[in-house]
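Side project, low priority. Logging it here so it doesn't get lost.
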Amino acid sequence: MRDNMPIIRVEGITKKFNDNIVIDNISTNIYKNDCLCIVGPSGGGKSTFLRCINGLEDVSNGKIYIDDLDITDKKNDINSIRKKIGMVFQHFNLFPHLTILKNLTLAPEIFKKNNKKEIEEKAIALLNRVGLFDKKDTYPSMLSGGQKQRVAIVRSLMMDPEVILFDEPTSALDPEMVLEVLDVMRELASTGMTMVVVTHEMGFAKEVANRVMFLENGKFLYEAAPDVFFNKGENERLKLFLSKIL
């Protein structure tokens, strides 16, 4: 039984694209220090679910609360609320015409209004943390995919988010680059960063998550701690899914 309030409350959300139901009446809570991994077949709604949490997609029904502020209520300032939620996408989304350092400092300089020198010092410290200090003055085109994704993670950290959402952050990488990104994510989880990770990396989910959820056809079908989840739990569809990928 938790004694802390959830950072994010998802209450019965549904997302439709025309007549296609992509998210179907999902409810869950995300608590401070959670590392929640969401797994399931491709096309099951996992990425859409993350985009709804961050307000990048409007829900068709239901409510999403971030620190008790309803992001589905148009009276609330979604941009202000969204500052609390970092997002790491599959394809990095770095600005190609800006140096790595400028990619990292742009948003904090606009939104946080900190001293420019302090922002740059923070960016350099975070780059050093992920092993990319020597890349600060280069451009994204000069980096490998794994390096770009590490920069994208640092970009999220620059805004001091309460939660970081990861949308299959290794799916666009060559196999040899996956490990370097997962290592950064492991380190973040070890510091207590609250994370929601859509992933096909079952080893990462088994090792790092404190909760694993199975999503298919827009529905959460099963949730458990990793030691229960990966012993195939009680759900027959989950058992079939795991039997094919493990």
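Brief comment: The longest strand covers residues 20-30.
Revisit when time allows.
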